[in-house]
Write the structure tokens for this entry.
Amino acid sequence: MPTIASSSLTYEILMYLNSFYFGMFAICELGMGFFKAANLPSPGTNTTLAEFALLFFLIITEGARIYLGRKGNLTEHGLPILIGVILTVPSSLATLYFLIWQHYVLRLEVILCSIQLVLLASELVISILCLIAIYKPSSPEE
Amino acid sequence: MAAIEIFSSPINYKYKSKICSLNFLAVLFFILLSLISPLFIISNTGGYSLKNHVLMEKPGVSFNYKYLLLANKDYNIDPVVCSTFKTYKDNEIKDDCILIKVREIDTNIDGKKDILKFEAHFYSDQAIKSLKLLLFFNFQLKQLFKTTVESIAYLTHTLNEEVQKVHFYGDLILQQKSLLSSEGLYESYNRSIEIADYSIDELLMQNFNRKFAAKITNKYVMEEAGYTNDNVIIIQAELAYRDHLIYYQPSVWEELKWIWIQYLSCFLVLAYIAKHVLIFLFSNRYLNCYIVTPWKNK
Amino acid sequence: MFLIKFIFIFLYLISNDFISHIKSVYAKKVEETFTCVNETECVYILEETSSTTVENIYNTTNSIISSSTYPTQTPKFQLVPTTQVPHKIRFSNEARNQSVYKIDSDICECDLTVSSCDINCCCDKNCNSFHLTVFSYCESHQPELFDKRYCYNRNFIQRNNTPFILEKLANNLFCILYDNLPPTYDINYEVDIKTAEDLREVINSNRPTWKWTDQIYIPEYNTSSPYQDGDVMWIIYNNYIQPFEILQSGFTALCSFKKTLKYLRNWKDQCLQTELIDTNKFLFPMAFNNFTIIPSPHLLNETYILVSDQVCPKNVCLTLTNYYCKNYWKTCSNNTLLGSCSNGKCYNIVTGVKYLIIHNGSMGINHVDVYFNIGNVSQHFYQQFEIIYEWVELDKEKSFSLSGNPGYIMGKPLIIGTLKVNKSNNIETKYINFNRTSSFLTLPIATKSGECNKIDRYTLAFGEDIKLKCSIFLHTNNFGTASCIELQNLTMHFLMQDTLFNVTQTDQYNIYVAKSGNFSSNDSTDWAQILLDRIPQNVIVGQFVNGRLYCSGLITSIHLNILYSALSKPETLNNHIIVGVGITFSAESNISWSKCLYENCSDILKVDVISYVTFHDISKPSKYYFAGGPNLDITLPYDFFYPFLSSSTCVKLNNFLISIVWGMILHNLFY
């Protein structure tokens, strides 16, 4: 057992925050999806369904990312964090989709997605730092 | 590992007593109190039922292309009469107008017409002194009940100077005389009004006596003073179709929708209080009972 | 340096050449524009010579055609040395209004004149930057349709050429900031209309629109059938068959409309006659009686055609019996009076016409009387018209119009009768005598001057609360108690019509009101006595005090109270019966007049006679109650339930049931 913990507190705090934020984000997105489906002229059933599916996909990837990231960080295993870093890509792409490419972009979505993207970016940076810390060659005393 | 409280459930004591006992009467009293007193509270604060309700609806108004314009000159001269009607009192109506313009405009492109512009041109060898304009409209109501009402909008104006041009502006509303019941059938007004059947005062009285009648409010009149008999006299009317407030008596189900929540909101509070009073009375032994504790029966 | 100079000269040459070239282009262009008829062609040409050329052309032509002080210079020609056009004065290319600048768009709504610059139309392709300098503003495009769901007007995101920096439409979190939808187009379904059939199909039939003016229904003479109720009546005038027409009022009171008489339809109207000249034929009786009436159409059909000399026999064509009356139909004679008009005054003209048509149902008309009211007129007047139909077998002695059957109808007169006592063989029989001439309850009404009308009285109608006021004038030279008594008697004469004569007690008053409109019996139980609160006493004193004349104890007004109630049967709720009638006299009052100022003048004693009438509805709101059902007394033998329960177990069972119910309620509510 290494005496100096290489797990990052910042990463943990960010991830913890993100887990709650993402819960809120997902609920809001879901609500806005329903709002759009109900109130705005539909661009087509398929596209509406595709957007919902993408949201579902985002929930899965993001959930997995947060779970793995936290687990990896706490247990100081590199692999889960690595998977988390990889999962950042589809997650951020999906968020970007909601920010830019989806059919109707509401103002609230812009705000929420931007915050989510900032969180993702900062977590990416810190997780890489964390990975470096974990895979750093152990000190010569050990 | 520290234990945390994750869930809690109260213990249910059972208080047992005979029917003919003070305890039973006390419990009965509290139950009845909590059941009945909401009724008193509600009925003393305005009653349960909604007396009436308002619904705002924009009726589909359309001009019927029927009009009657009477421009009176002196009393000993026949008035200028313009109409799409052909006979009045079994006599032929001589249409004096040379031009009638009708335009219904949908300003906000919602499929319902918003403004009617009506214009009549006629020549007169003498200045006109008063104007009467009857415009016939169809009102189509859809939300609460589906009906079409034909009604007359009546504009009247006495001119105190010789004029060449008169502008009328006004809001066309549907005047409602009394509360409607939401399931009423108002098809009786859906018939074409013909002027040949009645005299004008009968026609207007009939229109007046209806439950729904068109009315022009907020009337502005602009007169252009100055008159020559060589030029055409122009009467312009611009009517804005306005939203209509329907006052109606809510149906039974709509009443129930409001009643049950009123009752429940009072009842829950009172039931909670009554329950805690009873718990207090029983647990402090003000009322003596057999207490069945759940762990003894195991 | 040399090189630069060379380039400069070269440029100059080129541009000179270019200018001459453009000049020809311009000339050509003008020609083409004038000759072009098709609008699209013109546009094409304009586009061909667009921007680069058109703007330049102006400059060159200007410099060539005139050396005027046109402040023209396009930025394109800054390159051209100014020495070449020395007279040119530079103009400030900057428009005063910054918002005026050329707009390029495919659709230009304000461009409404071909090959001419529309003022303030910045997208007009005919306008160059010189034209633009005169514009005060750019005519805005068709106002964008605002979609409230978007945060901003979409136009702003594409290009900001609005006077506002941005147009916020909605300010909430749920507005659409932008969308990624493909551009939407309205589905403009174009219908191909080739036949008239297609056209009719496409036209929305629900929308109200202009209607064809209907042909006026002109009644046609139908020879086959006899007259029926509502049929047009026919006359023969100048050997032509015409409908029977008289005057009526039109949109105004003026006698401008014709009234076609309908068989068996009573009618009464008046209209204003304003032309008091001899040529107005309706002022003279000839217009109303100089024809014969066809008593029945089928009679004429059979006989008139057979008669060869076209003279209608008397039994087929009825001539009218004329009566010329004066003073409102009062004095009538057969002698015609020659009427004439001059200078706006007419003498002996018709002020009213009354046709009394005696008919025998489908057998047609038997007889027609026409009554003319003849009078002298000096101003506009109302001409009265009345058509009355009567059955030929009508017995005028017996016929009487009721005020409702069985009760009274609102608005009908009250029927009165007099109690008569017949003493024969010592048997006193009381009955109500109904007088046909004074059959209705009447009250005094004022004439034009305010005096009580001595001839006509107002007939009280059932259900209307009224107040009537008229004045009585008494001229006296010798004022005293006698004149006050005379005044009182005159008042009572107007109010009570001498019915108080010889009445000393209130129960002696013998005027009765019929309780129901259909008074069949003269039995006094069907009649309600008019109850007086007291008998006016003649305790009147006339005094002359301080130069004023005093009458004390005068009764000048009455209050008539009529109690009625609705008939009990629901099917005749519109009928009412009179329950009781009472007259209350006003309190004795003292009235004073000033004495007349001159000697030997007569004093005028003026009293206002006021009568009030109040109807009181004393009917209770009708309630429905249902007769109770038949009583069924079924008794079981006392030991019927013996095998099942005894009395003690029954009580226990009840207790048990109650406890279960309460237990359930308790459990559900509190645990």
Remarks:
- The two ends of chain A are 10 Å apart (CA to CA).
- The first strand of chain A starts at residue 104 and ends at 106.
